[in-house]
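Chapter summary example.
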Amino acid sequence: MPGRLTAAVVVTLGLGTVEAQSLSLETVLERFSTYLREYETQVSELAAEEQYDQWIKRRPGYGGATVGRRKLKSTYFLVRLPDGRAWYGFRDVGSVDGRPVPARSRSMSQLLTQRSVDAYDEAQALTRENAKYNIGGVFRTINIPLQALELLLPEYRHRFEFSLAGRERLRRQDAVVVGFRERVLPSLISDGFGGDLPAHGRVWIEPATGTILRTELGVVAAYLKEMLVRVEYQRDSRLQMFVPVEMEEVYGLDIEVVHGRAHYRNYRRFETTGRLITDP
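The structure predicted for these 280 residues follows.
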């Protein structure tokens, strides 16, 4: 991370695992909240290339074979909503299994640069429309990399119960693993018909700075035997910040399990003129 956070990361190399083991849950959460506040401003107006593979496997009792595959190529936008709330992810699907998606009257980039409530509503509707390209029996818009972080913003902290879930060494960095479980209804995530889907999961936090290294997110749903979205973060040398680089997802139904794996590359700033800054 730029500025103060970069210096803190350097300091933490000298602190090692001893300090990580002595920190309280409350201290880790406070540092994480501070990090998220700074991260909100840094991650806005970013775009990345997304390559997204999905497949469906039957459960062993039903043959265990792969019965469907899908490959999506998209531009993934991270922007700040016009009312000042947190970031939001917009997936603009460009091709499905190698076939280009028909052009729309207004592109996602045009909608996002208008910065009006109506334009953002139209962009969100386009995101929901793009969800039809997901395969499997689970309609979902939860499969965006920053979904877990949006739930864990400081203003929602009172909705969750947190616990220390261990300590790990993740990509040569010390991490405190914090579990979370939503305890307030109605839940932040719904099934699209007003039903509650309480969230739970884990987050891997670098303890000295609150930097996010990994998230795992699940929801409680009667029709899902299992559900998990895992996101890995790494430092982008050009942007000087941590960004999502991989997302994995699993949705377990009675007969089949839906899998997905997305990779993100070529992060760049998204200008208000609607032009993406590309490499020279």
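To summarize the output: The chain has five helices and eleven strands.
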